[in-house]
Amino acid sequence: MRVFVAGATGAVGRLLVPLLLDAGHQVTGISRTSEGTDRIRRQGASALRADVLDRDAVRRTVAAAAPDAVIHQLTDLSGADGEATNRLRREGTRHLVDAAGSAGATRIVAQSISWAYAPGEGPADESVPLDIGAAQPRGALVGGLRALEDTAAEMDTAVLLRYGVLYGPGTWYAPGGAVAAALAGDPSARFLGSIEADLSVSSFLHVADAARAAVAALEWPAGPVNIVDDEPAQAREWLPVLAGALGVPAPKAASGREGWARGASNGLARARGWRPEYATWRTGFAAQDA
Question: Which of 62, 76, 127, 192 has its CA 20 to 30 A from that of 163?
Fold first, then answer.
């Protein structure tokens, strides 16, 4: 299969490209920089330079790649910039879908998230609606996700990977990342999230498992699917383990729980044959340099 990867140099994309090549796919990745395209080529894939927010450039690069499928792994989370990420989800997805349709591609695999569900009890499965109408700033996040998913769904087959909280190399949760700095008390650390409410539940996902799911999803039917590990957990459980793995003090968690912070179920992904290699954050946090 000819596969076009947007976000090929990100935390997931840099692991995804070699997996796609190993699976026998012809891969073209894009990057905004010459350093990024050089990195993609060193992995053995074709590379084109383009900014996904430039509609005409995206159309040209997708047409040149002539893909059967597009994989969308775009975020701007390295800079902890939620507004920029929302723009990528809205405008970048629009440009990718329009270009893919014009080039004859019929499938898209797009990165979404698993903590945009409406409040409730217990881990959410894919039948739970998104938290549309949530107060700001959460409302902006959910609105951006809805725009991404609705736009992607215009393709003949759109698989929406609702990832858990990503950890591992290149993420906020890696040694030296934004979360480590925040836990260590760095006042300049930028981190878009809350790690304080001790009863709030999160579902985590190692970036390597995220990449494996994206490869598998090239053969999956359309629709959303949660890609999370096997153990949703309250902050009072996972936060001390993370702090220990990072070598920083564990903060005293504040009491309370956000109603939407409920974790997610990976039952559907498991039914399709996907299994997380890092089944739980309990062991995964300590293996982030792997």
Answer: 62
The enclosing domain of 19 has a CATH number of 3.40.50.720
Residue 39 domain-assigned (yes or no): yes
22-65: per-residue pLDDT in tens?
999 999 999 999 999 999 999 999 999 999 999 999 999 999 99
> Is residue 177 situated within a structural domain?
no
* pLDDT at site 190: 59
Would 287 be classed as within a structural domain? no
Q: Nearest 10 degrees: CA dihedral of 194, 197, 161, 144?
A: -50
Q: Compute the distance between CA of residue 25 and CA of residue 19 in angstroms, rounded to an integer.
A: 9
Q: What's the domain range around 154?
A: 2-168+206-228+264-276
Structural domain includes residue 115: yes
